[in-house]
């Protein structure tokens, strides 16, 4: 059964936040690509269990909707914790992780909060989210990413996926902030009905507004949480 898609997308999308990671356990912000890809920052044992449960839940959803596994694609961030999560899920689904159905996409990486936040307490997230509510176009500091900066590269990631796959169920394995932002823009894009917005990029451009982007925390995910998006 080919999934029914929205008019501006060729695929259906699910998101999965990585399982509980070693940085989560330590209460650390690990958001740079350099640090995030280090093996010591992969999943904690609890996170492996969360990833297995998410994989089982996803498999059940596929079976309940008569969707064949050959229609599934797993697209994931290159960070250790997301790669580890994607590997666990692929194993549950019995998909070869090195095969064509699993694809690492660098633009799905964690939001880089900035040099002074890196490897600091995760309590500092609250400062960033307060700033996001007040101005989603503002970076917490030079070198860090604003909400809108993340939207720009998520748009590229979606364009890559949409160009490569058609009629698939896409499982995006990513991070808290980027997945919140991804859900925000896709939800708004789905509802947008303005003129000349028949394609993905023009729809996302139309919804890159203060009112929409400042509310990305409404789509927060727990570690290991699976959710259908669009």
From TrEMBL:
Cross-referenced Pfam families: His_Phos_1
Coiled-coil intervals, chain numbering: none
SMART domains noted in UniProt: PGAM
Signal peptide residue numbers: none
Protein's name in the database: Phosphoglycerate mutase
Lineage: Eukaryota, Viridiplantae, Streptophyta, Embryophyta, Tracheophyta
